[in-house]
Write a structure and sequence with these properties.
ten-stranded mixed β-sheet, globular, alpha+beta, 34 strands, TIM Barrel, Jelly Rolls, 3 domains, 18% helix
Length: 654
C-alpha cells in the first residue's frame, strides 16, 4: 500500500510544475567586456514584399508595365485592370516608351464616346490605403493623337469616388510628364487608382506613380513601417539581401547600377528567388538613405558572381569586382567622382558612411566561392583598406581558410535548439575574424511568430552578449512581411496596406536596444533550473548617469523564484530599483495578429526597492528586464551564499 502511495505521489509531482529557485550574483566592479557599438541591428531584404508593397510607400504595382516583359496582350499588365468592355475600349502594350531601359508603354484605344467613362485602374498591392484629408502625389507620362480629357481618381474597389481631378483637355503629341495632387474626402483601405475618359481617341500611358506626400522626410518610406524599424534603434542595417542579392539566375540578381538615377529610367527586375517583380524604386541609393535615416551603419552585401544555380566564368568575375568598387564610390566618393556625381545629382552631395561589405551570401559551399571571394577581397583592401570585409564561411568552430575581418553565421532552427545555442560561441576561436550573426530565427514550430520562439531567441542573444569579445553583430531575419505574400515565416514586423504590428520576436529585440555599446558585467547564476538564463549590462543614460539592466529568461513551464544580489556593496550606496519590463502571455504559443496586435507585448511597471538584494518572481515562459540605478563595490550577500550552499547540498545528496 505504501508503495502504491509512493508512486501516486511521484506521478503527481512529475505532472505538476515545480517552482524553482535561482540566484544571480553580480559584481559591479568587474566589467567582463565592452559590447560592440554595432552589436544589434536589422536586416532588410526584398522578400515577402517587404519593400515593394511594404516599407516603400509607392502605391502603384507594376507602374511601368514592364512586369510581363515585352508583350502586346492586356493580360500581361497585371494587376492593372480595364474599365469598360471590348466594344468600348482596347488595351494593349507596345514599345513606344520614351525611356530607353523601359520600352513598354500602355496603349489605350477608346472606340467611342461614352457618358460613364472608360479606362484602366491599378489596385496597388492588395488594395491601396487611402486616407481622408491626406495628400497624394500622382505622376504619370501621357501621349495622345487627339485632344483628350482624362480623369485621375481614387475609388473604392466597387467604384465609389474618393478623390478626382481632370487633366486639362489637350493634345499630347509628345510624351508629357503630368503631376496632380489628390486629397480624398473619405478613407478606404482597399482602394484603387484609375484613369478614365469619355472621349473617343488613342492615348498612351507610362511610368505611373502615386505616393503619399508625407513619407518619412520625403524619402519615400511609409511612416508607420519606418517607425517600427526605427524604434529598434538598430546599430546597423544589412541590405539588400539575402538570396535577393544572388537570384536563381544571375540575370535576375540585384544589379545596383540599374536601381539608381531617376525612378522613371530604372528597368526594374524579376526577383526569381521570391518570385515577384520589383520596380526598384527602393534601390541602392534609397537603401543607403534608409540606413542614414535609421542612424545605422550600412552593411552592403554584394554579388560575387554566384547565384543559386549559376556562377560567372573566371573571365567575367572582373565585372563583379568593378561593380563592387563602383558601388563603394557611389556611396563614399566625392561629388566630383564618376559615381559620386550620380549620387550628388540624386540630391545627396555628401558621401554616405560605408564601412562594411559582405562578399556574397550563403555561398561558401560553392566550390568556386573561395576563388571569387579572394579576387573581390584583394580589390576591396587595395582600394578601401578601412572597409571591413565579411566572408560567407562559418569560422565559429574552425578558423577560416581565407582572410576576413568578419564572417557570417546563419541559424534557423527550433526553439529548444536555439535556446541551447546560447553557448555556441563559448568555444569559438579568439584572435581571428569576428562573428556576424547576420540571420537568426526560430522557424520550426514557430507558427507566424510565437512567444516561445521569441524567448529562445532572447536566450541565444544573451549568449551573444556574453561572447561579445568575438561576436561583433547580430540581426533577426526576415524583418518584414506583407501578410498577403508570406514567402517566409515567421517575420519580425507584419504589414498590410493600412496597418502594422510586431511579432513577439520583434518585441523581444526591444530588450536588447541598450546592449549595443554597453558593458557586460560579471555575474554568476546559481540555479537548479537549466531553463533560466540571465545577463547583466551597464549602460549610460541620456542624463549621463550609469544604469544596470538585468535580463532574465524563464524558458520553463513553472514559476521560478529569483534573487538578484549585488556582491560588491561594501562602502557603496544601496541600489534602487527603477522599472520592470516583462514579455509573457498565458500560453507559450500565443501570437500577435491584426485583430489582437498586442497579445504578446512588453509591459513596463515600477520596480520598487532599495538595497543590495532583490527577490523577484519569474512567471512561466517569460522574458524580464530589471533596471537599477547606482554603482559600487561590496561583499557577498548572505542570502545568495546560503542558497548556493543549499543547492550544492542538494546536488551531493542526489
Amino acid at each position: 500500500m505504501l508503495l502504491v502511495v509512493f508512486f501516486l505521489v511521484a506521478a503527481f509531482l512529475a505532472a505538476t510544475p515545480v517552482e524553482t529557485t535561482s540566484c544571480l550574483r553580480i559584481n559591479r566592479s568587474q566589467l567582463r567586456m565592452k559590447i560592440p557599438k554595432t552589436m544589434f541591428g536589422v536586416f532588410f531584404e526584398e522578400i515577402n514584399h517587404a519593400g515593394s508593397g511594404g516599407l516603400w510607400a509607392e502605391l502603384v504595382s507594376n507602374r511601368g508595365f514592364e512586369a510581363g516583359g515585352i508583350h502586346s496582350s492586356s493580360s500581361d499588365i497585371l494587376p492593372w485592370g480595364v474599365i469598360g468592355n471590348e466594344s468600348e475600349i482596347l488595351v494593349s502594350t507596345d514599345l513606344s516608351s520614351p525611356f530607353e531601359q523601359n520600352r513598354v508603354a500602355l496603349r489605350v484605344e477608346v472606340l467611342r464616346d461614352s457618358q460613364v467613362g472608360v479606362g484602366v485602374y491599378n489596385p496597388g498591392f492588395w488594395g491601396m490605403n487611402i486616407e481622408k484629408g491626406r495628400q497624394y502625389k500622382v505622376i504619370f507620362y501621357l501621349r495622345s493623337l487627339e485632344r483628350v480629357d482624362v480623369s485621375v481618381s481614387f475609388t473604392t474597389s466597387n467604384g465609389t469616388l474618393l478623390a478626382s481631378t481632370h487633366v486639362s483637355p489637350s493634345r499630347f503629341l509628345n510624351w508629357t510628364r503630368m503631376e496632380v495632387v489628390l486629397t480624398p474626402k473619405s478613407s478606404n483601405s482597399n482602394s484603387r487608382l484609375q484613369f478614365t475618359t469619355n472621349q473617343k481617341g488613342l492615348l498612351w500611358f507610362d511610368q505611373i506613380s502615386a505616393m503619399p506626400a508625407d513619407t518619412y522626410k520625403g524619402h519615400g518610406f511609409r511612416i508607420d513601417v519606418f517607425q517600427m524599424i526605427a524604434d529598434l534603434r538598430p546599430a546597423f542595417m544589412r541590405f539588400p539581401g539575402g538570396t535577393f542579392v544572388e537570384g536563381v539566375k544571375l540575370s535576375n540578381s540585384f544589379q545596383w547600377k540599374k536601381t539608381v538615377g531617376p525612378w522613371e529610367e530604372r528597368p526594374g527586375h524579376f526577383g526569381d528567388v521570391w518570385n515577384y517583380w520589383t520596380d526598384d524604386g527602393l534601390g541602392f541609393f534609397e537603401q543607403l538613405l534608409l540606413a542614414q535615416d535609421l542612424h545605422s551603419e550600412p552593411v552592403w552585401v554584394v554579388n560575387c558572381g554566384i547565384s543559386r544555380q549559376e556562377h560567372a566564368n573566371n573571365s567575367d568575375i572582373q565585372q563583379y569586382v568593378r561593380d563592387m568598387l563602383d558601388g563603394i564610390e557611389f556611396a563614399r566618393g566625392d561629388a566630383s567622382s564618376a559615381w559620386g556625381s550620380v549620387r550628388a545629382r540624386m540630391g545627396h552631395p555628401q558621401p554616405f558612411q560605408l564601412r562594411y561589405v559582405a562578399i556574397g551570401n550563403e555561398d561558401c559551399d560553392f566550390p568556386f566561392y573561395n576563388g571569387n571571394y579572394l579576387k573581390l577581397y584583394k580589390a576591396l583592401k587595395q582600394s578601401y583598406p578601412d572597409i571591413q570585409a565579411i566572408s560567407n564561411c562559418d569560422g565559429s568552430r574552425v578558423a577560416l581558410h581565407h582572410p576576413a575581418d568578419i564572417f557570417d553565421y546563419h541559424i534557423y532552427t527550433n526553439a529548444s535548439d536555439m535556446f541551447a545555442h546560447q553557448h555556441h560561441f563559448d568555444s569559438t576561436p579568439r584572435g581571428g575574424a569576428k562573428v556576424f550573426v547576420s540571420e537568426y530565427a526560430v522557424t520550426t514550430d514557430a507558427g507566424l511568430g510565437n512567444l516561445r520562439s521569441a524567448l529562445a531567441e532572447a536566450a541565444f542573444l544573451m549568449g551573444i552578449e556574453k561572447n561579445s569579445d568575438v561576436v561583433a553583430m547580430a540581426c533577426y531575419a526576415p524583418l518584414l512581411v506583407n501578410t498577403n505574400d508570406r514567402k517566409w515565416n515567421p517575420d519580425a514586423i507584419v504589414i498590410s496596406s493600412s496597418t502594422v504590428y510586431g511579432t513577439p520576436s520583434y518585441w523581444m529585440q526591444h530588450f536588447f536596444i541598450r546592449s549595443s555599446g554597453a558593458s557586460l558585467i560579471s555575474s554568476t547564476l546559481q540555479s537548479n533550473d537549466t531553463l533560466v538564463v540571465a545577463s547583466v549590462i551597464s549602460w549610460k543614460g541620456a542624463d549621463n548617469q550609469n544604469y544596470i539592466t538585468v535580463k532574465v529568461v524563464n524558458f520553463g513551464n513553472s514559476t521560478a523564484n529569483f534573487t538578484i544580489t549585488f556582491d560588491d556593496h561594501q562602502g557603496s550606496k544601496p541600489l534602487s530599483g527603477l522599472t520592470k519590463t516583462i514579455l509573457t502571455s498565458s500560453n507559450a504559443f500565443d501570437e500577435n495578429t491584426f485583430q489582437d496586435p498586442t497579445k504578446v507585448y512588453p509591459v513596463t511597471t515600477p520596480f520598487k526597492g532599495s538595497g543590495y538584494s532583490f527577490n523577484v518572481s519569474l512567471p512561466p515562459y517569460s522574458l524580464q528586464a530589471f533596471d537599477f540605478s547606482g554603482v559600487g563595490k561590496g561583499h557577498i550577500d548572505r542570502m545568495c551564499l546560503t542558497l548556493a550552499v543549499l543547492i550544492l547540498a542538494l546536488v551531493i545528496k542526489l
